[in-house]
């Protein structure tokens, strides 16, 4: 059965059906994925330009991959397109040592030859959209952890909100499965909220941009819950993974909130912390070249910084 699956994965690769590869492997529990399956999954993530996720997958099999030129080459690609040029150069050099004179490897090494003070020129056959640098941070909103957040009054329940967003409270197994599919560890505060009310529309929907007293706001029309059954859930048809794949949102995090404009979202940004750390919260405007606006240092700070429409009105 394993051999048949590997043959099918290779066929999909040749046909550029990379989404099919990801979906098939993601259906297999993580603990049952061997080196070959993770290698296929990481390669597919690279081809889908989901380089941060590819790195996380390749790191899981790092010990076995050290002497595999394909592992070195593939993680080198992921490092290259996330602008981690020192790590990319080391990986490609290892690939060249293990399998000398491979043309693709040498092409990357040539592009990386003089990268101390400037960015490399991309190999012509492998041009990809550059990864945007993290946005400049404004002063972080204070988080008063001594004040309990009234989650019972946080949500604006309605038939429409229940239909689009709300799911049953997630089990620990469901949380682990969703995190595995997203390749990111969800914030503890977010998980706590979702165990009490799994997705929905917040009463306070306005977050100040610039400083806590700003009259400029972004509006959040819904927060995605943990699951797959609702279209507006993390792994649903209109969830984070689907929109990153099909709508070209950044691959370095998780879409957690929706905005009135369907081309704008609120995301968890894992670039500063790594996939298992505490992410920051940003706003992404796709029609403006994926313009990123920093919002808050954590999901808890974001939630506590939300204001209602009356508070959001500019002072007269």
List the helices and strands and how they pair.
Layout: H1 2-14, H2 18-26, H3 35-47, H4 51-60, H5 62-65, H6 69-81, H7 85-98, H8 103-111, H9 159-164, H10 172-182, H11 188-196, E1 206-208, E2 217-219, E3 222-223, H12 240-247, E4 253-258, E5 264-269, E6 280-285, E7 291-296, H13 299-305, H14 309-312
Antiparallel strand pairs: 1-2, 3-4, 4-5, 5-6, 6-7
In short:
The protein has 316 residues and is an alpha+beta fold.
Structure description:
Helix 6 runs antiparallel to helix 7. With 316 residues, the protein is of the alpha+beta class. A hairpin with a 5-residue loop joins strand 4 and strand 5. It is built from 14 helices and 7 strands. About 9% of the residues have low confidence. It is globular, with a radius of gyration of 21 Å. It has a 5-stranded antiparallel beta sheet. It has 2 domains: 125 residues, Tetratricopeptide repeat domain (Serine Threonine Protein Phosphatase 5, Tetratricopeptide repeat, Alpha Horseshoe); 162 residues, SMI1/KNR4-like (3-Layer(aba) Sandwich), CATH 3.40.1580. This is Cell wall assembly protein. It comes from Paenibacillus stellifer. Keywords: TPR repeat. Pfam families: SMI1_KNR4. InterPro entries: Knr4/Smi1-like_dom, Knr4/Smi1-like_sf, TPR-like_helical_dom_sf, TPR_rpt.
């Amino acid at each position: 059965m394993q051999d048949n699956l590997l043959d099918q994965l290779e066929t999909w690769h040749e046909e550029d059906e990379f989404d099919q590869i990801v979906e098939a492997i993601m259906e297999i529990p993580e603990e049952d994925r061997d080196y070959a399956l993770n290698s296929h999954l990481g390669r597919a993530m690279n081809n889908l330009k989901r380089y941060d996720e590819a790195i996380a997958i390749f790191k899981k099999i790092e010990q076995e991959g050290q002497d595999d030129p394909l592992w070195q080459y593939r993680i080198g690609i992921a490092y290259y397109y996330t602008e981690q040029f020192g790590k990319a150069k080391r990986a490609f050099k290892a690939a060249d040592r293990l399998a000398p004179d491979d043309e693709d490897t040498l092409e990357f090494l040539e592009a990386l030859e003089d990268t101390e003070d400037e960015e490399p020129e991309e190999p012509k056959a492998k041009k990809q959209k550059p990864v945007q640098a993290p946005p400049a941070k404004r002063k972080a909103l204070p988080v008063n952890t001594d004040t309990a957040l009234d989650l019972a009054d946080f949500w604006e329940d309605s038939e429409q909100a229940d239909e689009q967003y709300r799911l049953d409270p997630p089990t620990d197994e469901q949380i682990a499965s969703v995190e595995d599919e997203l390749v990111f560890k969800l914030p503890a505060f977010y998980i706590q909220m979702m165990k009490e009310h799994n997705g929905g529309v917040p009463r306070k929907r306005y977050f100040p941009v610039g400083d806590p007293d700003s009259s400029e706001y972004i509006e959040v029309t819904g927060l995605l819950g943990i699951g797959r059954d609702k279209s507006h859930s993390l792994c649903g048809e209109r969830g984070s993974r689907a929109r990153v794949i099909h709508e070209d949102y950044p691959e370095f995090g998780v879409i957690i909130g929706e905005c009135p404009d369907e081309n704008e979202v609120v995301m968890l940004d894992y670039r500063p912390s790594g996939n298992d750390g505490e992410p920051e919260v940003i706003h992404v405007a796709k029609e403006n070249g994926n313009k990123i606006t920093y919002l808050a240092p954590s999901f808890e700070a974001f939630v506590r910084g939300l204001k209602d429409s009356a508070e959001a009105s500019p002072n007269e």
